[in-house]
Amino acid sequence: MSKQSTFQIQQAAYAWLDAIEASDGEVSDDAQTQLEIILGDAQAKATALFYARQRCRSMQAEAKELAAIATVQKAKWKGHEMRILGLLRNLLEAKQATGEKPQIAGHWGAAHLRKTQTLKIEDEELIGLEWHKEKTTTSIDTVAIKAALKAGQDVEGCKMVEQVSATIRSK
After folding, report:
1. Lowest CB count within 10 Å: 11, 80, 125, 153, which one?
2. Predicted local distance difference test score (pLDDT) of residue 1
3. What is the pLDDT of residue 144?
4. HSE (CB half, 13 Å, CA atoms) of 168?
5. What is the pLDDT of residues 17-37, one digit of tens each?
6. Distance between CA 31 and CA 25 in Å, rounded?
């Protein structure tokens, strides 16, 4: 059994079929041996692909678990960060109240008080229409188009296409 790419195995199978077709469908002992080699290569490739697929699924499951852990840790650190920011703000306000400049600097960074303005909407119903904006989105209704085509209706720019796909089941 040689190590071949999937493309090479496929080409060997096509060549084998062409040879059988040229010999009026007769399968000689040599042709049977070639077929067994091709099938062996295909089986080895399929086994490798199934292993890779299972490994990929395992890695995806592990990534999902790590993402869940990261979400929990992020929430914990967010809580710590909010408490630290609250303490820093209290310290800066205390410095300002005593007449000192509300600023702290260190090798870790710097903190200071600043004033910002933000919009607070108290009652949306009181806001005039000139302050509203309209959003419009459109998308193609593929379900309706499929139903129309199946019913024999002609939909310009669309056609039903038959496809063949492989179904793979893994344990």
Report:
1. 125
2. 46
3. 95
4. 9
5. 888 888 877 888 888 898 899
6. 11
What's the pTM?
A: 0.42
**Whole-angstrom distance, CA of residue 9 vs CA of residue 167:** 20
Rounded to 5°, the CA angle 63-64-66 comes to: 65
Query: pLDDT, tens digit, for every residue of 52-95?
Result: 999 999 999 999 999 999 999 999 999 998 898 888 889 888 98
